[in-house]
Design goal:
Layout lengths: L1 H50 L7 E8 L5 E8 L4 E7 L4 E4 L2 E4 H8 L1 H12 L5 E5 L1 H8 L5 E4 L6 H6 L6 E4 L1 H12 L4 H18 L3 H11 L5 E2 L3 H15 L5 E6 L2 E3 L4 E3 L1 H11 L1
Parallel strand pairs: 1-6, 3-10
Antiparallel strand pairs: 1-2, 2-3, 4-5, 6-9, 7-8, 11-12
Length: 285
């Protein structure tokens, strides 16, 4: 009997001596595999965060309105994937469809405000901006800062003969926020609607192109001037726009462009042609 018990305990001892290290090895390698899987997931998440920088995929389309006796308009497209900021001029006399018939953006704004102007533009084109933003020329000046300057090359928008006819002997003028609106109004009065509107887009793009640090400051300036503006931009919209502009400010290849929607001056107003409508739809897509 005693020998049988001894045999049993010896067998159990040797069995445990074999199984315990084996089980420990299995648990160890299972833990290592789980740890490695977690590390790989964390690394993949990290790579995803690096590859998807904040603002990198954002695009914003905003109707900018300049308040005044004769309101002016621009379509602003901030496009992070394309690395571009585009100011597209819209003459105030641009014709849009209204329930009572055609009217102009300027008349619509004066009658019902920027929200209605944005809505009629959307109805006319079949696509519209994400938001509108309206302010006086002085407020726009505050957004870029009173000490900011821009050197503007008249040759970019006027032929030599046209510049001489308007009395400009120097090709380049230096502008400040205090002098910009007078310059635009004085020179714009001598131009047709499309050229005057394009002049504004060209000047505004010059400010950003020559002062790239403004890209990271504009949204804070908009927040500070909120009491003096009309807009349907939300706090979330502004945060996302800030991320987009910060992303673009770090890209040397980012371009700041301007254009004007093509059309024809008519007795009723500025009528967008087929090419102008296509331009607008591309900016609003």
């Amino acid at each position: 009997m005693r020998s049988r018990k001894g045999l049993f305990w010896r067998s159990l001892f040797w069995t445990l001596l074999t199984l315990v290290p084996l089980c420990a090895a299995v648990l160890f390698f299972a833990g290592q595999r789980d740890r490695q899987a977690r590390l790989e997931l964390a690394a993949a998440a990290g790579r995803g965060q690096v590859g998807m920088e904040q603002g990198a995929q954002n695009t914003h389309r905003i109707l900018l309105a300049v308040q005044g006796e004769q309101p002016e308009f621009l379509l602003l497209r901030i496009d992070a994937p394309a690395r571009t900021v585009t100011f597209c001029a819209l003459p105030g006399q641009t014709l849009v469809n209204a329930p009572e018939g055609r009217t102009t953006l300027a008349d619509c704004y004066l009658t019902a405000g920027p929200a209605r102007a944005a809505q009629l533009l959307t109805d006319t084109l079949g696509a519209g901006p994400d938001a509108y933003f309206a302010a006086t020329p002085d407020t726009y000046g505050q957004l870029v800062g009173s000490d900011t300057t821009a050197r503007f090359d008249l040759a970019a928008v006027l032929t030599l003969a046209r510049r001489r006819a308007l009395g400009y002997t120097d090709n380049v003028v230096e502008l400040t926020p205090d002098t910009t609106e007078d310059f635009l109004q004085t020179l714009g009065a001598e131009l047709d609607q499309a050229d005057a509107a394009q002049l504004r887009a060209a000047v505004w793009s010059a400010y950003l192109r020559q002062n790239p640090a403004l890209l990271t400051l504009l949204v804070d300036a908009v927040r500070e001037q909120s009491a003096r503006t009309l807009t349907d931009l939300t706090a979330q919209d502004l945060l996302e726009m800030e991320q987009t502009l910060t992303f673009l400010s770090d890209r040397t290849e980012a371009a700041i462009e301007y254009t004007v929607l093509s059309g024809t001056d008519t007795a009723a107003g500025y009528l967008l042609d087929e090419a102008g409508t296509e331009q607008a739809l591309q900016l609003l897509e």
